[in-house]
Amino acid sequence: xxxxxxxxxxxxxxxxxxxxxxxxxxxxxxxxxxxxxxxxxxxxxxxxxxxxxxxxxxxxxxxxxxxxxxxxxxxxxxxxxxxxxxxxxxxxxxxx
Length: 96
Prior knowledge:
Elements: H1 4-8, E1 13-18, E2 24-30, E3 52-57, E4 61-66, E5 70-75, E6 78-83, E7 92-95
Antiparallel strand pairs: 1-2, 1-5, 2-3, 3-4, 5-6, 6-7
């Protein structure tokens, strides 16, 4: 099992997740983009919370999403599904 940052390190990825309103969404982007930030220190306060991921969506801007709402992650030619063993455990990703 791997965590989100290990899998997506310096790579473009696609993530399928459930939005707050219950609808499904697909994002394409990558982590670590700072080109469009006014304050280069951080994207927002959500990055300090371990269960949030802030990514740069290609052509649209920065997006934050909760890791426990991620359904599937695709990086290169590999697919991963999210697994959370308990309510307090961090989300891990298993290759499918």
